[in-house]
Amino acid sequence: MTGLEKAMALGGHFTYFITIFLMIAGLFIVIARGNLIKKLVGLGIFQTSVYLLYIAPAKLVGGTAPILSDAFTVYSNPLPHVLILTAIVVGVATLALGLALVVRIREAYDSIEEDEILDLDAAAQPGVQEP
Amino acid sequence: MVLMVVTVWVIARSRNLFGVVILSGIYSFLMATVLVAMDAVDVAMTEASVGAGISTVLFLGALYLCKGEEARPMHKPWLPLGVSIAVGGLLVYGTLGLPEFSDPNAPIHQHVVPRYLNEMKKEVDVPNVVTAVLASYRGYDTLGETTVVFTAGAGVIALLRRRRKNRKP
Amino acid sequence: MSLASHLPALQVVIPLIAAPLTVLLRRRNLAFAVVLAASWVALAIAVLLWLQVAEGGTISYAIGSWPPPWGIEYRVDRLSAFVLVLVSGIAAIVLPYSRASIEAEVPPQQHYLFYTMFALCLTGLLGITITGDAFNIFVFLEVSSLSTYVLIALGRDRRALLASYQYLIMGTIGATFIVIGIGLLYLMTGTLNLADMGRRIAMVQGTRPVLAALAFLTVGISLKLALFPLHQWLPNAYTYAPSAVTAFLAATATKVAVYVLLRFYYSVFGGSQVFEQLPMQEMLLLLALAGMFAASTVAIFQTDLKRLFAYSSVAQIGYIMLGLSFDSQSGLTATIVHLFNHGVTKGAIFMLLGGVALKMGGTSLARVQGLGQRMPWTSLGIVVCGLSLIGVPGTVGFVSKWYLLLAAFEKGQWWLVFLIVASSLLAVAYVWRFVEAAYLREPRADTAGVGEAPWSMRLPTAVLVVATLYFGLNTAFTVGSASNAAALLMGGLG
Amino acid sequence: MRNDLVLRVIAKLLIPFILLFALYVQFHGDFGPGGGFQAGVILAVAVIFYALIYGHVDARKVVPEPLVESMMALGVLIYAGVGVAGLLLGGNYLDYFVLDPNPVQGQHRGIFWVEVGVATTVSGVMLKVFYMFARRGGGDE
């Protein structure tokens, strides 16, 4: 049992609280920050924190990674691992798309600050609308 | 894990986007370490390669095309703070009722999974259970996942391909 | 094993295979042909499935031959079969229309990718509807969401980019909430299969994680379906997306989100449980009413028709949720019927507006002055659909309102009856704004010589407009399916 | 940076190993951690590495864009195709048991092809996304 495992076992719900802190921080960055790239960083943190929520309960103290072998009998639960693998992939796909959008927005507006862009739009009303 | 908390705190405070991106890479590495400690080796490997590798490259690529400083926020962020804390509070409320950490009698260890661990040897016979579940038992999820990646790829092409006629400014 | 027994898998797989094919082919005509064929086949399959379900009851299909809950199950019951018909039907109608429409709105190199994204979006929506597995819902939700973001960003106006970005942020937060909710449920029940979850949840009913899961799922899905205070992404997205995309999304995307909500409430949490343990009923009722009135009021003051009807969508979602909040069979019937009816009506409206945008060069109220002279048929179509939004007898809107009123009578809530009628008056007001501009104003000089949209756009649109009237008079299919589905849900059967 | 001889030589030496590692991760996924997704990422990283050293114009000569775009689509088709093969051989969709007279062998075969599909799409998409971003920067990075 490693030190980290002990700490986690002692803490009981400790991992959940860390998870929740990370989540609050991530969500806060997403909603509060006006910078489009920073928002995506926050979104990443928000999503990553959820991984812990799935993975932590899957751990069995004294268990090993779910790769079958004759030497071990207790394995951690593999199903959440699978789900989170999928979630990570989905996360990076979203990120790639989000960044591509940011690049396009930057080209169209010359800014990646949400407030500035909204101002620009307000100033450009109603002229741009009609081609 | 405490290091992760610190990293995130700095990310939230910092306004230098370059620093933020590098820090988020470090954050991913820390996350991967924690995941290894939790026996999720496959996930850790993916998180390290995706979070610290691909995402950072993508962020840097995007930053290269944009500017690197974040503007000072215009208004006090009380509302977002309130929303985030409310969500966190709800989750605290929820997690307090969850089974204790590493409780072998928790439903997730009792239902569904035993078959993966016990029967898989004669049904699929692949030592890495994660691979077996990923590619076979829940193979359809993985097909969906591949489709998501494909969607993102095609989407990026659609967004970033140079046009002959540029869009109106 | 005959082909018929594999229909559930083919329903999703055929559009899924069509998408990469379009990228390989790269020619927009070929891409169009492939996706068109796929969407029509999908419609045929949906109809066949609907018939199978009507005869033989719920179909369960084990993907990979792994029995549920170990593998992923596809589950077609009366509700999902009904929604499948709606989604694939709208896709099959919008697709031929999109060809001429995107010609004008999307740069040519992007055309084949437009069809790719359309196929993927269809795949995602069908996948969400048909699956019986909680995590699979999330995966296909992301397929449809990511493709939706791209489709919106293809719009011509640069504001489409920001609209898409905002939707991406909101949508991802919503999806992550859904993942948290599913995670909590999984931790408490140990399964991901919805039906299995519904059975096992009885043991842990009322515990804190389950309640939290309920809250997270409700908020997450509400973000997706644009329930009133969480609707901010919708008006921009609908306004700046290409017309064909708006028509497709308005008719299907939010509807599928409602379906997911119903699925979780009734198949997993077990209907009345939801309403007993938390003040959900009051909350939904309040939000639904707030949405109906606030959004309709905002709609009245819009100067752009696409935006006006986008707000009207938010209001109509209010009606849909209102039906749900009754938690009674007639309330649910109203919800499900309105799901279909509003999908048809809104799809038709946005398709008509696409024609207007193409010919008149915009959809602002100032531009469409005198539309009644320039494009008489299109104009008439919008009026018919507008009447349906108001709920005039003879249109589908009336049918939904009728069942909603019945549900309110049943509960003896007279004041609700009054409020429903009052909110319809607001709809009269915003539809009148269009009528005023189209018929009572002289056309602008710069729109002289403008005629109707090309046939390839008018014909599919006409189908939907006629459907708005047809299903308003002949309710056997819609109400029949909806009340069956509602009975199924209230019975607590997955 | 591109003219730095040391970097170029090191890159030349390293890239084959990265590619080899990708293959190892791909086919060893049954026994240890790893699988199609990770292998795809590593494969893409190898090429991105090459592009960073030699410039993405050169990289595009080695791995041309139409190829990358086809890879994206082919991967999904391979995966979906395995499912259809299951259908044609009389099983349910994505049924691997019927892929071989010996059901367990069929599972192995199914997993193998599915992982190939995943790796193909993932590496294709990662590379394509990288190219897209690099190209937007205009000229060379």
Topology:
The complex is a heterotetramer of chains A (about 130), B (about 170), C (about 500) and D (about 140).
Chain A: H1 3-11, H2 14-32, H3 36-58, H4 78-109, H5 114-124
Chain C: H1 7-25, H2 28-56, E1 59-62, E2 73-76, H3 78-105, H4 111-130, H5 134-153, H6 159-189, H7 194-204, H8 208-225, H9 233-240, H10 243-269, H11 272-277, H12 280-300, H13 305-326, H14 329-360, H15 371-374, H16 376-390, H17 396-411, H18 414-440, H19 455-473, H20 476-490
Chain D: H1 5-28, H2 36-54, H3 56-62, H4 65-88, H5 103-136
Task: Give a structural overview.
The complex is a heterotetramer of chains A (131), B (169), C (494) and D (141). Helix content of chain A is 72%, strand content 0%. Chain A is mainly α and 131 residues long. With 494 residues, chain C is an all-alpha fold. Chain C starts with 6 loop residues before the first helix and ends with a helix. In chain D, helix 1 (5-28) packs antiparallel against helix 2, helix 2 packs parallel to helix 5 and helix 4 (65-88) runs antiparallel to helix 5. Chains in contact: A-B, A-C, A-D, B-C, B-D, C-D. Chains A and B meet through helix 1, helix 2, helix 3 and helix 4 of A and helix 1, helix 2, helix 3, helix 4 and helix 6 of B.
Query: Taking Cα atoms only, what radius of gyration of chain D do you get, to the nearest Å?
Result: 18 Å
Order of helices and strands of chain D: HHHHH
* Average pLDDT level of chain D: 81
CATH topology of chain A: Helix Hairpins
**What CATH architecture of chain A do you see?**
Orthogonal Bundle
**Biggest sheet record of chain A:** none
- Please work out how many helical segments of chain A DSSP would assign: 5
Number of structural units classed as domains of chain A: 1
List how many beta strands of chain D DSSP finds: 0
How much helicity do the residues of chain D have? over 70%
Average pLDDT of chain A, to the nearest integer? 76
